[in-house]
Write a sequence for this structure.
């Protein structure tokens, strides 16, 4: 199944016949089987599906954190295939923003230092990285927490700082795994709003969510079952109808 609302333009994120198998023989687990997906500039795609259907695997492959058994993943038209580990790491730092369930804030760095870190690792001057970090903290409403260390922040505050780190700088592909997990529902909505705004400004977004009302922020929803795309909505009334079927509230 091939999904794109931007036919013609190079998608910012593309999965071509991506398969990921763990183990082999009788005990092999087929986490993802022949998935095709294109996400263009200005598109926010939600991924839904039951536990074990392959959602996290899809996101990890899209982010270059895992390697397909077959098929390939391209970011901005560049395939991870054949790139050195250093080149993959550089591409990930420059183009990709991740919001994962695991917050991974560095405990010995303040909030603003954590957010500035990816830019500094990429060679940005400290002053430039810091001002971009402050802007990203402002976007998530956490600029007043800039000088706090992670253990001085609540779970929700840590999550918002982690989101600021994912959004800092000119990221073109935003990947989010249940970005609202540790947040109250009001903040969760504002996070989706934030992702939506970045995508409207030209990024491509891929969000794994269990909540239909969060998926309702997306342009398309891709449903996975047993590692296969079993359904996909387009923009328009079809989205609301399918989300109603999925059992949640619509926006
Ligand atoms: N490292 C691994 N080794 C073996 N099997 C794995 C591994 N990682 C994932 N799997 C299996 O691959 C399948 C897909 O897992 P995945 O975590 O992608 O699903 P998911 O849809 O994200 O689930 P959840 O909603 O529970 O997070 C599952 O059957 C899982 O047990």
């Amino acid at each position: 199944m091939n999904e794109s609302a931007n036919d013609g333009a190079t998608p910012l994120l593309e999965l071509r016949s991506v398969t990921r198998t763990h183990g082999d023989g009788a005990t092999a687990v087929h986490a993802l089987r022949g998935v095709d997906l294109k996400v263009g500039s200005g598109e926010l795609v939600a991924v839904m599906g039951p536990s074990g259907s392959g959602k996290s695997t899809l996101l990890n492959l899209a982010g270059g954190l895992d390697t397909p058994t077959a098929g390939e993943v391209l970011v901005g038209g560049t395939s991870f295939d054949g790139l050195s580990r250093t080149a993959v790491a550089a591409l990930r730092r420059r183009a990709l923003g991740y919001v994962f369930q695991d917050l991974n804030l560095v405990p010995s760095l303040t909030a603003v230092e954590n957010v500035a870190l990816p830019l500094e690792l990429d060679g940005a001057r400290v002053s430039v990285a810091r001002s971009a970090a402050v802007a990203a903290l402002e976007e998530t409403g956490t600029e007043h927490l800039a000088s706090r260390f992670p253990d001085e922040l609540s779970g929700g505050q840590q999550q918002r700082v982690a989101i600021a780190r994912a959004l800092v700088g000119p990221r073109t592909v935003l990947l989010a795994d249940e970005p609202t997990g540790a947040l109250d529902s009001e903040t969760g909505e504002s996070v989706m709003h934030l992702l939506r705004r970045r995508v409207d400004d030209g990024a491509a977004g891929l969000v794994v969510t269990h909540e239909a009302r969060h998926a309702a922020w997306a342009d398309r929803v891709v449903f996975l079952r047993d590692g296969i795309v079993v359904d996909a909505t387009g923009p328009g009334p079809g989205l609301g109808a399918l989300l109603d079927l999925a059992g949640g509230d619509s926006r």
Notes: The radius of gyration is 18 Å. Helices lie at 55-62, 85-95, 111-121, 126-139, 155-167, 185-200, 212-215, 237-245. Confidence is low (pLDDT under 50) at residues 1-6, 247-251. The chain has two domains: 1-102+174-184+206-251, 107-171.
